[in-house]
Design a protein that fits this description.
By secondary structure, the chain is an alpha+beta fold. Helices cover about 40% and strands about 20% of the residues. The protein contains 12 helices and 13 strands. A 6-stranded mixed β-sheet has the order 5-4-6-3-1-13, with helices on both faces. The relative contact order is 0.17.
Length: about 400
């Protein structure tokens, strides 16, 4: 933060009070491809994320600068004239948030802002939603708007959907805005009802491993999976009074799965239903402090994503299978859309070094790629940070 304050004055000049904010990244512990199927997700916010230092202006000019993209320099826009501009690259995310705030009738002054993010590039830990929520909370505080966090979450999602044009669900923004230290949030993506489960890992840690495989197939396969699930749902609805696959128990699904005529669609629906059931059960296990049972559910989630939903691919399977073979691994699974990206594992602390070394070797043998590992902590959601010590 000290460096950020110094850089801010170098970039924007001194004078005037500055405020600082932090918005975390997120990881989904379990509950993959359930959100658009009317099910539950179980993410947590991380201790890494996006920092912002901001100073209010007396005019309508907005000046944006990122220490991660210094070559782009200062990006200047008028708050009265906000349009998506490909050349503005990363700055379209905060611009989008300002635009949606104004669309909702909120009065927003001009400001100078400097961002810095320590979320690893391409790790799938949601840097876009992180900068959106950082912008939301700074706009809220700077302009005394008194907007509640759930509304800021919804506006941040709209910024990504409508301004940037990325069709994301609400999980990323919700986890980042509503995150709590040492807790995961069980979120019903349909109703936005939520509850927290404490994550007390005792002598273990969360480890994110990046496959370093580019996720080239993810977008096209995502649309394909949605269509397969929609077809399955439509056939089940011929006899069942349901709105989404997430409304089903496994027993009801098994009794009626014959209604789904396409065997591939049937497999996709099976994953959507079973993963939702697993996610609800996983939240209960964590609340009860049963980390071993939670780890087993993580493993089962990966198997379902591999065999029924078929979104893992060679690299994710190799990384998870390498993790499963290691002593001290309580659970491991892919996280995110699939076809590359990251895995999430719970690893006993005394085995962390051997886990990283051996898993990397096994993974490289199978794929030729070198993974990256991040031991992460679960932190609070997006917020203003007043003390230098809190920011560090």
């Amino acid at each position: 933060m000290k460096k950020m304050y110094e850089q801010f004055e170098k970039v924007f000049g001194d004078g005037g009070a500055m405020k600082s904010f932090f918005s975390p990244g997120r990881v989904n512990l379990i509950g993959e491809h359930t959100d658009y199927n009317g099910g539950h997700v179980f993410p947590c916010s991380l201790s890494i994320g996006t920092y912002a230092v901001v100073r209010k202006r007396e005019d309508s000019l907005i000046r944006l600068y990122s220490m991660n993209f210094e070559s782009k320099g200062i990006i200047e826009v008028e708050s009265e004239n906000l349009i998506y501009d490909e050349e503005h690259d990363w700055a379209n995310y905060p611009k989008g948030v300002v635009s949606i705030f104004k669309e909702n009738g909120y009065s927003v002054s001009g400001f100078d802002v400097l961002y810095y993010g320590n979320i690893p590039n391409g790790a799938g830990l949601s840097s876009s939603a992180s900068i959106e929520l950082a912008t939301s909370v700074l706009l809220n505080e700077l302009n005394g708007l008194e907007i509640n966090m759930v509304d800021m979450v919804k506006m941040s999602q709209r910024a990504e959907n409508e301004f940037v044009g990325v069709n994301c669900g609400i999980m990323d923004q919700f986890a980042i805005g509503m995150g709590k230290e040492n807790a995961a949030v069980l979120l019903d993506c349909n109703t936005l009802e939520y509850s927290y489960s404490p994550v007390q890992l005792e002598n273990a840690s969360l480890v994110i491993a990046n496959t370093n495989k580019r996720r080239g197939l993810a977008d096209s396969k995502y649309n394909e999976r949605r269509s397969e699930c929609e077809r399955a749902l439509a056939q089940l609805q011929e006899q069942l009074d349901i709105e989404a696959l997430g409304d089903l128990t496994m027993e009801t699904f098994e009794a009626h799965q014959h209604l789904i005529t396409n065997p591939v669609d049937r497999k996709r629906a099976k994953h959507a239903v079973s993963e939702n059931v697993r996610t609800i059960e996983a939240a209960k296990k964590l609340k009860a402090g049963d980390i071993e049972a939670f780890g087993q559910l993580m493993n089962e989630s990966h198997v379902s994503l591999r065999d029924d939903y078929e979104v893992t691919g060679v690299e994710l399977d190799a990384l998870v299978e390498a993790a499963w073979s290691e002593e001290g691994v309580i659970g491991s699974r892919m996280t995110g859309a699939g076809f590359g990206g990251c895995t999430i594992s719970i690893v006993a602390n005394k085995f962390l070094e051997s886990f990283r070394k051996n898993t990397a070797e096994l993974y490289k043998e199978k794929t030729g790629l070198t993974p990256e590992f991040y031991v992460v902590e679960i932190g609070d959601g997006a917020r203003e940070i007043n003390q230098l010590s809190e920011a560090l």
